[in-house]
């Protein structure tokens, strides 16, 4: 099994079994405060209009409703307009997130104290007791990190290990903060992360128009309030602010709009306009769900528009990766054709890898260039024939 | 780790942690999206004692699209293709819900073995066999379980002189012998008799001439 898979299986993802089965109510409580679709603690929980009043994360149920108009648990017909915020559950989840860490820590200390009394029967001496005192503190640090279970987005978590421009979940307030600012953030008592901090992550790949708007927004906004001043000319400025009770974005029937109109709609929302019609439609649809789901959280728990945009970008990148992986894994993947299609790239890579060939041995006429990368070479790529090299150097 | 991956991880861990369900999941290749699930044949069925393996593929839009499952172990069941292992089960198609998990789906598969649905079959021939002669079906299913799923052979079966091909096809040795004596190839006889569902109540209904006609084709 590869390292990635081993790491995947070992990943410590919090779930009800963290609690002992005999601890009264703990597992049930953890289970009860989790969305049955994503198995995470509820994020922006909403109740649906089925007779049982089932509750899900806003984002989860909105995505599910895109496929089927029924409650995932009881299969009664439900509608997106009838989703209602469930503040009580949201507050309970927030409290549980903190309590959970504490409870696990207490349980662990109890276990260790028990183990210590058993161990002390076999061993004696100070060194051991020093070790014991150290481990509870270490584990509590681990637990503190665990609180960030549902920070801003799971994809953001992936950035913790990467460059310093990565965003990390604050272990205390759960908000996402650029890693270089995390110490200041905690020292200042966890204020809302400024959107300006996140601009550094968004701007590099923004397209021209969107980027200009963002540059202006950096000049104008104080921080945190969303891009009210950079709202589109069509008066959508009010709805961009995630702090106020903004209007949810309307859904559109993608089949009835022209590609041009679709691009306009994306521009109005400051979203990238790259990709074909299907890509743009998927992007818009995902954005609408994310934005509306965000409004289902109580104001203090909402993410800023910038954070949402970052999440959207991460999601699109992951989707791209899935598509290319699916293409390569497809049964009808023709490796010969693939080699032909990417002939120049392969040739360039091979040329770069080869030691320098003496010039006089190159001859311009040496058979058809197309067959230089024949499928019969199997997995290894044959060095290109001389003609191939000549063509490139031209 | 994205949401889909996290969920899959939780589900694998869930199966590992739950000792009572006797359902297990393992990874194949290096992809966490290609798994093999397995469970024991349920008691009180011809599949008892057998160990069944199921190929699981987790699609891109999981959990909003159903997980793709098919039997690796060959099973004799009206809702499972005897050739490809494809499964006809509502929760794997239109009755899928995002709250279903790998564990719950595998348990549903296990109960499908307990209660076949011959009115919505995957394998028409097996379904016809089931409807025609339940006892013969059970015998055949048991034979398949012994041969393919490692179910322990019952002593009574061992003493009888069992012709493998005949038992596999769920037919009577006497019938096969009779038509073979007419000069037809054994494999062809078995094929035709199986296709015509020459079992139980059908035996008096299908004339010998009809069978010979099929054999001559």
UniProtKB/TrEMBL annotation, chain A:
Primary subcellular site in the record, as a coarse category: nucleus
GO cellular component: nucleus; Rad6-Rad18 complex
Catalytic activity: S-ubiquitinyl-[E2 ubiquitin-conjugating enzyme]-L-cysteine + [acceptor protein]-L-lysine = [E2 ubiquitin-conjugating enzyme]-L-cysteine + N(6)-ubiquitinyl-[acceptor protein]-L-lysine
Domain SAP residue range list: 254-288
Keyword terms: DNA damage, DNA repair, DNA-binding, Metal-binding, Nucleus, Transferase, Ubl conjugation pathway, Zinc, Zinc-finger
EC number: 2.3.2.27
Group of enzyme by EC: transferase
Subcellular location: Nucleus
Name of the featured protein: Postreplication repair E3 ubiquitin-protein ligase RAD18
UniProt organism field: Phlebiopsis gigantea (strain 11061_1 CR5-6) (White-rot fungus)
From TrEMBL, chain B:
EC number: 2.3.2.23
Keyword Nucleotide-binding in annotation: yes
Domain of life: Eukaryota
PROSITE patterns: UBC_1, UBC_2
Catalytic-site annotation from UniProt: 88
UBC core domain sequence ranges: 3-150
An example Gene Ontology molecular-function term: ubiquitin conjugating enzyme activity
Keywords from the UniProt entry: ATP-binding, Nucleotide-binding, Transferase, Ubl conjugation pathway
Enzyme type, top EC level: transferase
Family the UniProt entry places it in: Belongs to the ubiquitin-conjugating enzyme family.
Protein name per the record: Ubiquitin-conjugating enzyme E2 1
The species this protein was found in: Phlebiopsis gigantea (strain 11061_1 CR5-6) (White-rot fungus)
Lineage, uppermost ranks: Eukaryota, Fungi, Dikarya, Basidiomycota, Agaricomycotina
């Amino acid at each position: 099994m590869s390292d990635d898979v081993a790491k995947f299986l070992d990943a410590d993802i919090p779930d009800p079994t963290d609690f002992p089965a005999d601890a009264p109510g703990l597992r049930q409580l953890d289970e009860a405060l989790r969305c049955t679709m994503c198995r995470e603690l509820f994020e922006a929980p909403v109740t649906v209009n089925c007779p049982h009043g089932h509750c899900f994360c806003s984002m989860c149920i909105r995505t599910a409703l895109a496929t089927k108009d029924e409650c995932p648990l009881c299969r009664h017909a439900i509608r997106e307009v009838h989703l209602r915020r469930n503040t009580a559950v949201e507050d309970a989840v927030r409290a549980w997130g903190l309590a959970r860490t504490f409870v696990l820590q207490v349980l662990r200390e109890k276990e260790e104290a028990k183990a210590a009394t058993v161990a002390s029967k076999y061993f004696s001496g100070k060194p051991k007791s020093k070790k014991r005192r150290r481990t509870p503190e270490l584990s509590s640090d681990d637990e503190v990190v665990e609180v960030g279970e549902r920070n801003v987005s799971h994809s953001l978590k992936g950035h913790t290990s990467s460059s310093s421009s990565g965003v990390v979940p604050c272990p205390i307030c759960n908000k996402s903060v650029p890693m270089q600012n995390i110490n200041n953030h905690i020292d200042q008592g966890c204020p809302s992360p400024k959107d300006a901090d996140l601009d550094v992550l968004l701007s590099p790949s923004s397209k021209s128009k969107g980027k200009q708007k963002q540059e202006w927004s950096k000049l104008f906004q104080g921080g945190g309030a969303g891009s009210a001043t950079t709202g589109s000319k069509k008066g959508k400025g009010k709805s961009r602010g995630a702090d106020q009770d903004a209007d949810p974005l309307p859904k559109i029937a993608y089949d009835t709009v022209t590609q041009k109109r679709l691009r306009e709609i994306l521009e109005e929302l400051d979203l990238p306009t790259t990709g074909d019609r299907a890509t743009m439609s998927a992007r818009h649809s995902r954005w609408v769900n994310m934005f509306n789901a965000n409004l289902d959280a109580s104001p203090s728990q909402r993410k800023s528009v910038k954070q949402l945009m970052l999440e959207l970008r991460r999601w699109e990148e992951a989707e791209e990766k899935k598509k290319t992986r699916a293409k390569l894994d497809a049964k009808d993947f023709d490796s010969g054709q693939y080699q032909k299609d990417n002939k120049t790239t392969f040739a360039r890579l091979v040329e770069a890898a080869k030691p320098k060939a003496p010039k006089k041995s190159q001859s311009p006429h040496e058979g058809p260039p197309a067959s230089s990368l024949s499928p019969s070479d199997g997995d290894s790529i044959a060095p290109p024939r001389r003609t191939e090299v000549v063509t490139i150097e031209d | 780790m994205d949401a889909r991956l996290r969920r899959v991880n939780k589900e694998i861990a869930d199966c590992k942690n739950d000792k009572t369900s006797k359902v297990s999941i393992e990874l194949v290749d290096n992809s966490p999206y290609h798994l093999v699930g397995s469970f024991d044949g349920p008691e009180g069925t011809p599949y008892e004692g057998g160990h069944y393996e199921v190929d699981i593929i987790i699609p891109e839009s999981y959990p909003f699209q159903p997980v793709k499952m098919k039997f690796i172990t060959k099973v004799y069941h009206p809702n499972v293709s005897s050739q490809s292992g494809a499964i006809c089960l509502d929760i794997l198609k239109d009755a899928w819900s995002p709250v279903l998990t790998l564990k719950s789906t595998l348990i549903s598969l296990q109960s499908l073995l307990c209660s076949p649905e011959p009115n919505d079959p995957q394998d028409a021939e097996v379904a016809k066999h089931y409807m025609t002669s339940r006892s013969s079906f059970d015998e055949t299913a048991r034979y398949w379980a012994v041969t393919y799923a490692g179910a322990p052979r019952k002593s009574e079966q061992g003493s009888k002189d069992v012709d493998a091909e005949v038992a596999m096809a769920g037919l009577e040795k006497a019938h096969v012998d009779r038509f073979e004596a007419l000069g037809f190839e054994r494999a062809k006889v078995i094929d035709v008799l199986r296709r015509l569902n020459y079992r139980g109540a059908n035996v008096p209904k299908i004339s010998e001439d009809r069978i010979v006609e099929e054999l001559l084709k």
